[in-house]
Automatic annotation (TrEMBL):
Entry keywords, A to Z: Chaperone, Copper, Disulfide bond, Metal-binding, Mitochondrion
Organism encoding this protein: Urochloa decumbens
Protein name, per record: Cytochrome c oxidase copper chaperone
A Pfam cross-reference name: COX17
GO terms assigned for molecular function: metal ion binding
SUPFAM superfamilies per UniProt: Cysteine alpha-hairpin motif (SSF47072)
PROSITE patterns: CHCH
One GO location term (cellular component): mitochondrial intermembrane space
Region (Disordered): 1-29
Length: 73
């Protein structure tokens, strides 16, 4: 019987350990200026080179990214 008890203890130890796949904490940037750096750079570069009127697709892409990050723009 002594061997049976130790086997149960080993089996129960492996079952009791929680999986380490818990969801990560929310990673949304707290400031809108820090969100979507890739689309922000493309938008800013276009505006500097061509003016705001010529960069509608980059502006809209950045706004969509910000909305996807949870900002209300």
């Amino acid at each position: 019987m002594g061997n049976t008890a130790s086997v149960k203890t080993e089996a129960s130890d492996s079952v009791e350990q929680p999986a380490t796949t818990a969801p990560a904490p929310e990673t949304k940037p707290k400031k809108i200026c820090c969100a979507c750096p890739d689309t922000k750079k493309l938008r800013d570069d276009c505006i500097v080179q061509h003016g705001e009127d010529a960069c509608g697709k980059f502006i809209e892409a950045h706004l969509q990214c910000l909305r996807a990050e949870g900002f209300n723009v």
